[in-house]
Specification:
Layout lengths: L1 E3 L5 E2 H8 L12 E11 L2 E10 L6 H7 L1 H4 L16 E9 L3 H12 L4 E9 L9 H11 L3 E4 L2 H11 E2 L11 H16 L3 H12 L4
Parallel strand pairs: 1-4, 2-8, 5-6, 6-7
Antiparallel strand pairs: 3-4, 3-5
Length: 213
Amino acid sequence: MITKLDSVLLPRKKFIYHYKNMRWARGRHETYLCFVVKRRVGPDSLSFDFGHLRNRSGCHVELLFLRYLGALCPGLWGYGGTGEKRLSYSITWFCSWSPCINCSISLSQFLSRTPNLRLRIFVSRLYFCDMENSRERDGLRMLKEAGVQITVMSYKDFFYCWQTFVDRKQSNFKAWDELHRNSVRLARKLNRILQPSETEDLRDAFLLLGLYP
């Protein structure tokens, strides 16, 4: 079964504008979130729902998605019966920006209370992660500790989104200039954030000792 939260697919120009992984993404103040929800309903079959959302009425899209979970994931919290088993779901997000610190905290807390939900997040760009002491970096590490798999989108992920969520009118996905280079750069940055190197650990130790300029 396939259903969509929004019956309207993303226009091609809007997808390119908001998901383009350019180095300086000025003017892109909204976050778009394309999602896939899966649940195994038998040995050889899955339920499959998909759609997209964006920030609305001052609510960040990650938290807005949580509001729809009851409709998207029936049985996630059981059906009210005492001792009734909760159904398990696997959710994948494709986000134009990585989550802010507040959304990361809320998601981590929610997932700690919902062990039967598995979340994987693909991001086109990293939100406010340039500074070493960025709280958004702490938020991404918090999500990782909560069991979320966070990955920077590559060509195949943009292609999948184009095929699945975009009103493409049979047009083929064409990679923009430096898509691959920017994806590799962002993936390396995310890896450094989630898995600090020994060099960074030494630098932090030197900072504590007052030996780092």
